[in-house]
Amino acid sequence: MSLFSFTRRGVLAAGTALALSLGPVLGTVSGAQAQTPPGVLIVGQIAEPKALDPAAVTAVNDFRILMNVYDGLVRYKDGTLEVEPALATDWTISDDGTEYTFTLRDGVKFHDGSDFNAEAVKFNFDRMLNEDHPYHDTGPFPLAFFFSAVESVEAVDATTVKFILNGPYAPFLSNLAYPTGLIVSPAAVEQHGADFGRNPSGTGAFKFAEWRSNEAVVVEANADYWDGAPELQAVVFRPITDANTRTAEMLAGGIDLMVEVPPVALSEFQGDAYTVHEQAGPHVWFLILNAKEGPFADKLVRQAANYAINKTALVDEVLEGTAAVAAGPTPPAFAWAYNEELEPYPYDPEKARALLAEAGVEGAELTFYVTEGGSGMLDPVAMGTAIQADLEAVGFDVKIETYEWNTFLGNVNPGLEGKADMAEMAWMTNDPDTLPFLALRTEAWPDKGGFNSGYYSNPKVDELLEAARVATDQEERARLYKEMQVIVQEDAPWVFVANWKQNAVTSDKVEGFSLQPSFFLLLDDVVKN
Prior knowledge:
- By secondary structure, the protein is of the alpha+beta class.
- The chain is 27% helix and 23% strand.
- Helix 11 links the parallel strand 17 and strand 18.
C-alpha cells in the first residue's frame, strides 16, 4: 500500500491531543500515547497556510512547508545565511553588478513531469514582475519587491538564464534564496491558474499529496530528487493554532516535531523522550504604530509608548528569557550591519507621562490589534495583555481586538488607517535590507504594495536604504544601515520589543533535525524511526 493511499483516507485532526488518526496505520488512539508511523513525520504548525504558491505568500509558517516542495536557483548553506548553488550550478556577475548569468542543473523535472529549464525560470519572474504576463493575475505577489531591480530575464538557452538589473543590487542572491525566489512549474500554473496555490508543483525533496483544510497538508518523498531522495516517506503538516494544544499534542505523541514552543512549556520537554532545539536568527518583534493619524502621528507619543512598555519584563517573565530586548529595527543576528551603539528605550513610565503631557494627549484612546498566534509571534496574547497594562498605566485607554493569524494579516498588511492605532508584528528576515526596505520606506506604504502598515515616512531613511541596496562594498552598506537605525529609533515608528531565539522540540524518534537561522524547516535529511 502506498503512503499516498493511506494519507488520502486519513490524516485527521479531531481537535484533542489524543485524536490523531493516520488511516489504518495508527488506528484509534485512546488514553495511551499516540504512535505515529515510522517514516512519516508529523509537524505541529502554528497556523493553517494561506497558500502553497511561494510567490503569493509572506508568512514563515507557509515557508516552512514550501522549502520542502520547491527549490530556488540558489539556497542558504546548511546552518548559515550564506548562498550556495541549488537549481543553478554556478553563476557569473558582470563587472558593473547589473547582469547575473546562471548555469542551470540539467535533467531536473518538476513533480508534474514537466521540464525545469531557463524558460521555466523566466516564466516565474515574468509572472511576478510583468503586469502584462498572461498569469500575472494568479497573484497578487506581495514580496515581488524583492526583485524590483530586475529589468528583464532572458532564457539564453535551455540551461542558461540571464537577469538584467536596473543597477547594482546587493541583496539579489540572498533574495533568490528566499522562498519568494522558489521556482514553480509553469505547466501547473497554466493548468490550475488562480488555484495553483492549492495544487503546487515544484522540484523539491517532497511532492504535494493532499491539503485537508484546517487538518493537514501532506507531502510525500520525491524519489527522483536531484539532490538525493529524502529519508522520510512523508511529512504531515498539521495546523494547531493554540500553543497549549500544540504542547499537549506533542506530549501525547500526536506530533513528532513542534515549532515555536511556548516559553512556559519548555520545561515539560526536558526528559530523554524529547530534544529541545534552539537557534539564533534575524528576528524582531515590534508594535507597528499608526503614524498617519491619531495619537501616534506625533513622534513624542510614539516615543512615550517606547518608554511606557516594560520590555525587560516581557522578555524575562512572559517569554521566560528566550529573547533579548530589541534596540531598533535591525536584528543583532546581522552582526556586520547591526549598530551596537544603540541602547534600547529604557522602561521609564514617568518619562512617558511627561511626553504625553507635552503632546497634550493624556487619556488617548487606542485600538490595538493582537493575533492569537503566527510566525515568530511568540506568546502574542500574553504579550498584548501586558503591553495594554503598561500603556494604561501611563494614561492611555487601550482596547484590544484579537484575530486569528491569517485574518490578522488581512487586517494589518493593507494598513492601519481608519482601523487601528497599533498592531503586533514580527519579522524573520534574510538580509539587513529586507525589513526596513519593505516596511519603513515611504514607497513601501500599503497602497504602493509594501508592508509599511503604519505609514512611517522619513526622506533621509529612504535615501539611506536606497543607497545601501546598491552599495557593492559591505562596509559601506553597514555604515548606511547603522545610520538608518539611529534615525528610526529616534523617530520611533514602532515600539521595539524583542529579538527571539527560535526553538522547536522533537521526539526521540526523530534524528537528523536542526533549526536553521533562516527560520525555515529543511526536512530532506531527517529520519523518523
